[in-house]
Records
---
Amino acid sequence: MGSVERGLLRQGLRYALWLRLVVVATASFAALLLGTAREPVPAAVMVLLVNAWNVYYAVRRLRGAPRWLVPADVTVVCAVCLLQVWPAPPDGGSESTIWVSAAAAIIMVTYPWQVGTRALAIATVAVMTADIGGAAIANPDGWLAGLGLASIPIRLWMVAEVALSWGLYRLVRRSARAADRLVARGERLRRDAAIAAARRDDEREYLAALHDTSSATLLMVGAGVAAGRERWLADQASRDLEVISGPAVVSQREVDLVGMLREVVRHTPLRVRWRGPAAVPMRAVDAVMLSHGTREALTNVVRHAETDAAEVAVSVVGGPAGTVVVEVIDSGRGFVPDQVPDHRYGVARSVVERMARIGGRATIDSSPDLGTTVRMECPRTPPESDDDNVEIIATRFQRGLLWATVAINLVILLLLDLPKLLASHEVYRSVAAQYLAMGGFVVLTLVVATGLWRGRGIGRWRWPLLALVFVLSAVATAAVPPEHRLGYAHWSEGNAGWTVVLLLLDTRPLIFMGVLGAHYLMTFAQTVIGGDAAISFAASVNATVIVLAFQLGVGMIAIVLRQLAVSSARVARAEEEVRTTEAVAAQLAQDRRERYAELAETTVPLLSGLASGELDPGAESVRRSCAVEAAKMRRLFAEDATVPDPLLHELRACIELAERNGVSVAFAEFGERPTIPTQVRRRLTEAPLWALATARGKVRLTVVGADETVTVSVVTGRPPEIDSFPDSDGVHTSATVDGNRLWIQSSWQGNS
């Protein structure tokens, strides 16, 4: 059962219980005050006890009813029906006991929201039997007459209302299920999109984290700048291991950004001046991104700024729900941001792209010899996305309720009112007027049904059609003689209101109730002006209450459903967020495990050895291994399928790294190259990357494309040790030593 259907059943039960309380109280107290009871004291006690039981029943039902509560309720209703002799009038008439039938009917109307179809049928038969039996007890000499003009419509209406209420319940619940299916379909699409987006973002964040931690550490060791920092290096390597093995952050809970930033600062080999508030609570995902960006900015100060001091400033702009701003400021050597190559990872991707992924922004303000300011901004409260679930649920509810009202109107007109019309020909002043009104109401109902079938509303025709309803109702009432008005022959008295309901279901509550009430007032005014009616005022009140209550109840259902659409959409989105978060977390955890497994044979042993002190960062072999691994990571960071030539883009990133280590690289490329898969590019660049990372002095790098074949070759000085590069993924690698020169060549045939 989906959230929409659960919400419907919960709200429907509350609505049903409130409808029962109000209608029974109105009908019973009106009859007690306006009528004359045969046994006034027992009748008053009956009214009080019935209403007290209704309150008790509603409270227990809302708290979770025991199994015996509904059978007990049916028993109470049957007892009231059987004891209607007490409120019966002294002259033996039945009009004063119509409230009993009205109360029994409205109670039965609420049962479809509480019991199953079989139990509803059994309860209906039991209550109807008790009501007829009670009428016989109240008037044993004329109980058949008691089933005549005044009470036959009420008792027929009791059965009709139960059936119509059951149909209304089934149609609206079917609409809720349809809305749940549509919401679930949308959720699946959004969840798949969220997982795909989260995987892309997490991959970028993981690469950014590798760049900020493991790659930077290994690069420092490979470049020989870690000398004298063995203690800090061991701690840093330990933290790097935690980063690459740690879980992805998808939590929406709040954490303290300031605490996280202070932890970053604590592990930085700089004198850092702090400026900002004591605490800044915000979403964990955003706080982690800001702290990672701060870590990278401070790492860049250590590596490039040629200063041992920096400042970290935190502020919140625009109030508590505004924008969080983190600035990392140094007064070091500075640089020209526009001159940073696109393949450089730190500024463009580790900071700027990181902020963009969480809806923020980052700017770098720097000039030579004037220092650098890295400014990161992130909205503290992410903007809420438009929720189309509300429209989906509301539309489905509206369609279901409209179809139910169309069915109710047609059933009442054709199965209940038409027999009255046919049986009362001799009563009417004009039979043609009655058929005109009946046909008009049926046609109006079919017009609404046709528009509903075609997916169109009545729009600007609403008020002309309502005016037509009032005219037809007035014509039908005028054709009934005054002494028969509000009686059996006056079929249009309240039932014409169902066409009003059908035309006003999607309007505001005050408009709905005002127009419906105006229709009843018009009918009563015609009756009062005409003279004596078929039934007394007290009986007319009770007869009107039972019909009007159901009509107002349908209108209230429309209001409840509109409110329920909003609350159900909110619940559905909350549940969706939980399920999506769990699915994203599971997928990202699997991705992280796979990425960690890729590093387990290369990066992890190096970091573990540096963290434990088993590896000497000053040893030539350790430096060489760290340089090679750092170069592999740099090539990985440079992977970008959107650039025109990914192979050259990745190689240039490795060349830039080698040049920063003092190597002079001569690079050339020739010919046309086929499209190269990512895994093949990794194999093609593996040996040249190793050569660039271990080279000293001069290197010549060449890329040649011819006849669907790609060849990458490197000529460099002969290193003390040469790695082996087995063939893989169709890439053949050879290494040739000629004196003090090493020639490495990797080739791949595109159509192989």
---
Amino acid sequence: MDTPTKTLTFETRLDLIHEQDAALCQYAELWNQVKFRWFANLQKPKAQQLNRTQFMHEMGMPFSYRVFQGVRQSIKGLIQSYQTNRNNRLATLDVKIKQLEKTLNKLKKRCDHVAEKGSPQQAKQLRNRLRQKEVKLRRWQQKQSALVAEKQENKAPICFGGRKLLKERQTLKSNEGIRDWQCRWHEARHREFLLVGSHDESWGCQNAQLSPSEQEDAYQLKLLVPHQLRATFGTTINIDHLQFKHGSKAAIAQAVWQNQVKKHDKSIKGQPLSFRFKRDKKGWRLLVSVEVAGPKEQAEWIDDDQGVIGVDVNPDHLAVVELDRNGNPLQHRTFDLPLHYKNDAQRAAIIGDAVRDLMDFAAQQGKAVVIEKLDFQQKKRHYQKQDHPQYARMLNAFAYGKIKDLIETQSIKRGIRLYHVNPAYTSLLGRMKYRDRHGFSDHHAAALVIGRRHYGFKEKPPKQLMGINAKGTVKTEHPPVRMALGDYQYYNKLQRWYQPLEKSLDFLSGWRHFRRVNRVSYSVEARLGGRPGMSPDLIQESTPLLSAHPAL
């Protein structure tokens, strides 16, 4: 299995008394002071950065190594998240700038043509439009230059508390408004803290110990108070009757049981638990993270020899194709993802429902799932080439990373094997070989290639492509020969050859792709009548031509 482990997070809301709430607030304030100072230390040149002992001595505040680990992991996650978002923004800007430069070149030629032969009013409108495009291009180029310089300097300008709230301070004039803003600013900057665990610590975490309670399906938490706060709140804070109502309870129950058995049997390896405390308008929430492995015992009923399910992730749907062991399609499904005009909570719910239906289908068929090993930048760059407003709107709401992560998480929880394959040219090969042969869409044809690639089938382009244009003329095209080119060079050349070919003809029934022309199992009426949007008159006119053609 490609993803043997996955970190799962379980959430519950804490029912606290006033003293416990005050203790957690003081804990969060102390922890975030260390976090801010450590982040400032990392922004210095490497020669001037302090290690943990020097840093603790400079702060004059003793804290344990495990607390420091929580601070370091939190800062590391923030920096990595910012760097990933910056790379995504750079990739998006790069595509936008290239497309806008092409548009400007066309617009300049059109301006010159209209200036010579058109009316003055049309020329003025085009010049105004050209000026607006040039301003937009300069703005994007400035953003790109600033991000590139920031990346080269290895900076991560993170604002703790949020830039929106920070900018709000500039609009305040009255003392009462400033005091209210300061309270909200302090709450936003000190509303969470993280405690990480280790497998060799008692109950999986030294600073927060989760153990079974007397009540069924409930737990109790013992939180170790820092030395600075023990004079006020004591050594520990005990929180009882914790229940995790959402998610797979078996994973956290297994982790707690494993840590409990480890106390009596040292040969058993404990399960590390990480605890994140977050405060919102309703109070404190507790998020417990545990690393879960996909046990082989859960997946014994999944047999790759019975076939797999190929999945192609798209901005508005999941294209799913079920295959047998020989790579032949058995059936195809579509799970819609109407993410446009939805907020984050609605998108999360829609994605969760679609992935759940996908996993239900995989469990019903008893087959593993195969997806592309692709990151968001590549997927977004692929769809940005679709120069269409509809694709632009869908891409704005496209949450490819969230879909991919949720598929991986659900496969672990439900014991369904998940495989990743190389995504190179799956869409191109699907369109050329399987789209019209099986009556699939482009995306289902790509899903078929993804599933076949898991078994190592080599997808060679057909030796010739045959099609009928709108006039009823039968044409044959021969793809370029591989010769001494490598795979990457050859498929790039093949794509450059095929894309204009698709756009050059007004299709009636689409190109028909066969390795050998004399092996045709489709009737003329079925192939022509099965395509939506065809004129009956054109079908009637083209049928005699096709019937008379020996190759068809």
---
Amino acid sequence: MDTPDLEIQLKTLPSQPGVYQYYDKEGTILYVGKAKNLKKRVSSYFTKTHDNGKTRVLVKKIASIKHIVVETETDALLLENNLIKKHMPRYNVMLKDDKSYPWICIKKERFPRVFSTRRIFKDGSTYFGPYTSMKTVSTLLDLIKGLYPLRTCNYHLSQEKIENGKYKVCLEYHLGNCKGACEGLETEQEYHNNVKAIKEILKGNFKDSLTRFKMQMKQLAENMLFEEAQKIKEKIEVLENYQAKSTIVNPKISNVDVFSIMSDESYGYVNFLQLSYGSIIRSHTLEVKKKLDETDLQLLELAIIEIRQRFNSNSKEIYVPFKVDLGNDVKVTVPKLGDKKHILDLSLRNAKYYRMERFKQDKIVDPDRHANRIMAQMKADLRLSSEPRHIECFDNSNIQGTNPVAACVVFKNGKPSKKDYRHFNIKTVEGPDDFASMEEVVYRRYKRLVEEQKPLPQLIIIDGGKGQLSSALKSLDALNLRGKIAIIGIAKRLEELFYPNDPIPLYLDKKSETLKIIQQLRNEAHRFGIEHHRNKRSKSALNTELETITGIGDKTVVELLKHFKSAKRVANAKLDELEAVVGVSRAEKVYNYYHNK
């Protein structure tokens, strides 16, 4: 399908955290950015007047937008970093120049220092990064500082100088932030064990540090050193809390393709995430039109081959929601839990959002396709023999049996057809009898349609349970229409759908579009019926009040209400105002009635 206009893409973006990518008309990636709320952030580019000339030029060049939805801002930050390093977009100037972005340096020294820097020197030191935010670097350094005491001084700690007592411990030692390597109070081996653990944390491997701390805590507790054990426990909690925040990067998941699928009656939506060295470097969703009744398995197998060829992927392993047959060259994994399952769920979420956006776009640019899809979905969900292009819904309204009325609302192609709505005043039923009222209304409605040779609906919905449905069926039987029109009842309490001669109700998914349309029909019938009931009740009350006045007839009542708009204003009117409308004699009768009362 052709890419929708920018304006439509903007309207249908999700309000979730994620990463957005701007492309020009040639399909070249221009810019990658992250957002707490994708819809707000991306829309701001097109609604604000930008002072920065570079941003103005960028906005003019944007032809299409892609995005990846993630769970948290931290995920968005990591993913943005991966994509920028992978694609090097023209307008992400800062990330292309690695010197301008922060790194974490482990200095090549006898007792290495760990610090942030924006400059890289080829002196044998180890650098981690670049990071897209100094805040991320500060958080990591605070984490490391809290877990492992390291020196912050810049002394040259050679063995000779330490043995000669050239240095003295500083305040950091007395605060417990350093173990005093400058006076030989910490061995080089101990220090390097800590540095090794820090490197693993920066790579995303928290397991070794957690194991080490738990062993220390257990030993301290066994030796009755509970205060020291509590301090180690706090470090474990800090480490576990930080680990839980990072879900995008997992060094153990390397060079893998992830595929998931969402489908409806007409289309399948296959999302592809490409992972390299534990990082997501690409996301793409392919829309596949069903030609026949292909299964999700068939669609997914076709899409995987197409996507892997398109992106020239040679990954030896793929993650999918169910087993697929791709030959012996590719390992197929169906994750059930852990990080692998989490990444598969992330792929599925992106497929769902893509599908939702397509629905919104179709509503705007291709309403026919939207209607066709809804009708096909309703036919399948409600087990109908034909698509319910024409639906009618009935509802009764009465309060303590007074002024009983009923409403019939009509939907065509999933949308209200208000010109076809009808009100009914109940004529043959005395008192509050919903079942008999429903029987009368359904009979009158379809007797008239048959006599006038007008088209009958494909589906009738009765607002009520088994009782109202049975009453409506009696009328269809009397008109010989049973079996020619599908009919169901919807019970208010649990949204149960009842079918003729079936004691077990049908429950639809609470988020399904079919149930939403049925609820919309029911609510519209209720609103339309209540509106008519209120009008009838108030009109009855007004007429009763004015018509009880001796010597005042219907014509006088109409004249008074036309002029004063309400019975209350008539009651409060002055004598001369009444005379101007209905003459002296009748004015006096009305005036005296209200004022004597």
---
Amino acid sequence: MLKFAALGLLACFSLTRPAVAQDVNLLSRDGSIAISGMFLSFDGEFYRVDTDLGVLTVDSSGVRCEGPGCPDLDGYYAQVRMSGDAQGMHTLLPALVTAFAMRNGYTVATSTPEAGLTSIVLSDVENDLIVGEFLLSETSSSEGFADLVAENTDIVLSLHKVTPSEMVLAFDAGVGDLSDPLRARVVALDALIPVVSRSNRIGRLSLADLAGIFTGNITNWQELGGGDAPVVPHLMRDDLREGSEFRRLILGHGVDVPEGLVKLHDSYDSLVSAVEQDPYAIGLGRMSEGGAVKALGLSGACGFEAEAAPADIKTEDYPLTRPVFLYTPAHRLPVLAREFLAFARSPAAQIVVARTDFVDQGVDELFFRDQGRRFANAITHAGEEVTLKDLQDVTRSLQGAKRLTLGFRFEGGSTTLDAQSRSNVHLLAELLEAGVFEGRSLIFAGFSDGQGAADVNRTLSKRRAETVLRAVRQALGEAYEPERMLMVAEGYGEAMPLACDDIGWGRSLNRRVEVWVRDQR
């Protein structure tokens, strides 16, 4: 039986060259208990061994290791392997690892053992010790999960939420339940952006337009207000996989791209280059990639408009926002890896993310006057159920306050916060604990879609706001001190839609909880 060698081996090895696992015997100090199996990993404290009883984790302080698979404890240092999205591995993670090292007083030595693989060695110069090594493999989100299942990586960097098939494979391989919120952290944000040649005169498209292009129902730019020319669609191959944001938000459930219609790419560099050189091309690019192309805004039939601006990505007001996840297995990781993961979700790490091409989750405050377009849209679409008095109540409540750029949304058809929102709960709790909002009032403002009766929607929206407020208080734990800040939940129902209610993604965008802050009166 072959296994991939894991952490703790003194010799550095490439993620693409797995070693054959070897037999070990773990004997208790008095020799009364013996555990035999194939060595999987050692994290400096615990052995992981694949035995006839399954994978066991054993405290090294209580046993001695015998056999060809035993690591050299005298020369041990932690080796943390990461695999996933190539752009994130190339720019985001090196920046985070370097900042983590500097924060702990370590020096960093970076090298490239082979194409697509970066080695970052952390050293304690004062004590002349190598503390650990991070090996970053530039693959893709899907390949990262495959590496995790094969025990060929410890952490996955993914631009998509784990899919049902990936969850099944991971569970069967003993990696654990990757749907567990504890297995995923959001470390940054990105966004899908429609891009065209700079010579193309189209400025924005709706998601329905994009769906028509990528299903072959729209084939000429003239149908979209452009010139009489064929539409040539381009797409990343990874965006065709199950569970992608492209499939979820643009194609829709059960809809496929006709074979041969779209030109597929394995890298964003290739996609952007192709679109840049073809005046008739359109592709789905990324906020983090850029390129010499023109980004298109999004529009809706009800007057909704959105641009891929950092503030709108942070609040998820831009519908094609993509959280950047770090996924971890259910088994124990080295102390170095656990400390890095704790740092990666901290406010300090978001300062580092802001210096990369990704969008950070740092919390900004938006002035009430910045929300003019939203209020104008609300007034335009007010009807019998949303009265002038309703709009006046919202305005009276929020005028003079500032909206925070972290928002909260829920998993489809449930009251469970989505992954980005769970991350936002911890970020807000840390800011509250640090006293950032001391002496101020926080209004958790709930909003709903327009389906159903207005009074019912007001009640539902307040319940959602109360759910978020409770989650933040729970995250604060004993650090919650009500005398330091006032937190209240309010529900405004369907009074301020962000998007069109006539399609699913628009309704999901409208079901949200915002946080507004004002100085206490």
